[in-house]
Automatic annotation (TrEMBL):
GO terms for biological process: acylglycerol catabolic process. GO terms for molecular function: monoacylglycerol lipase activity. It comes from the Bacteria. It comes from Hyphomonas atlantica. One of its GO terms (cellular component) is membrane. Gene3D superfamilies: alpha/beta hydrolase (3.40.50.1820). This is AB hydrolase-1 domain-containing protein. It holds the Pfam family Abhydrolase_1.
Amino acid sequence: MAKPETPKSHFADLPKGRIRYHEAGKGPAVIFIHGGGPGAYGFSNFSRNMQSLADQGFRSIVYDHPGFGESQNRKIEGGMFDSMAEALLELMDHLGLESASLVGNSLGGGTALVLALTHPERVEKLILMGPGGGMPVTSTFPTEGIMRMASFYDGDGPSVEKVDRVVDLLVYDRSDITPELIEQRYETATRPEVLASPPLAGQVHNKANDLWRRELETISHETLIIWGLEDRVLPVDMAFQFLRRIPNADLHIYSKCGHWAQWEKATEFNSLIADFIRTG
């Protein structure tokens, strides 16, 4: 697949720091919310999806979480999902969005869930791709993927090899993972301001991030849960707790797919979420 051209960057000066975002297209708003791996940022994670949704008649928006990409870090108060949801709400206010459908992967999925719980009127539909904050039924947790992310800045510090080891667990088939992608994530993860205050430091064992303890039964939004059967970061048996407890949820599982469904199954994924947002 050809490498998509990076769209123009925009910056929102928000109450607790600057956020970078990109947008394309017109129509109902769809916000893509990226995961929390080292070197992750909005367009990198959703480069195969943003323009496709714009071409299908949506206002397609991606942004960098605080502390990722070119967004300023902010102090995490409470849990990481709560702080990220606060930043998302500020960005929506800045963009004049009364509501939007949310497409969240991993950290982004937990962020979307918190916004749906705390400000349900701001959310149209929820698409959760291997969302964080759950608890597996049978799998060991934290997983090897989570521990590789959490220890990235420990020991002898970041390296290209460590980035490669993290990305290796994000996908089922790494044939599209280029050296350029690994180097790009390494450069993003080792910017001076990131090294000075790594995002999500100390958050793996923070009970405030256990979204399964919250009242998921109160989420009334139409919800599509997407999981890769071979997800080695957040295992697929996490999906069934969300499916059982969110009243209007459906589950779609991709075989031969890891944590990056939006990357590995991009064509099918883009059609699936566009149809879901239009018709439910």
